[in-house]
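Handoff note, outgoing to incoming analyst
You'll be picking up this chain. Sequence as last confirmed:
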Amino acid sequence: MTPSRPVAMLDQARELREVLEVLAAALGRGDTAAVLAAEPALQAVVAAAGRAGAPGPDERAATAAELHRARTALARCRVLGAASAELTAVTQDVLGGAGAYSRHGAGQPRAPRGRDLLARV
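Most recent structure output, in case you need it:
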C-alpha cells in the first residue's frame, strides 16, 4: 500500500468551509434532506483533517482566512441548529406532545415557557 500524498491544509480548510456553508444554507432553508446529504461530506472532511501537511509560508495567511470563514460558518450552523431545535420543541408543546427524545437522549418533557405572560395589546 502506498502512502497517500498529504493534502494541502489550505485545500482542506477551503473544503471544510464549503461543506459548513452548504450545511448552514440547508439549515437556514429548513431542508432536512439537504442537511442529511451534507453529513457524509462533513464526515469525510473531518476524517481527513489529520492528513494535512503544514501550510507553507506563502499559504499561511490564506489558510488562516479560510479557517476563520469555516469558524464563522460553524457558528452559523450552531445558531441555526439551536433555533431549529427550539422551534421543534415549541411546536411539540403547542401540539401537546412531549419531546420524548432529543440529542440528549430520552428524558422528561421540558418545562413550559412563556405560558404565564400577561400582556395587553
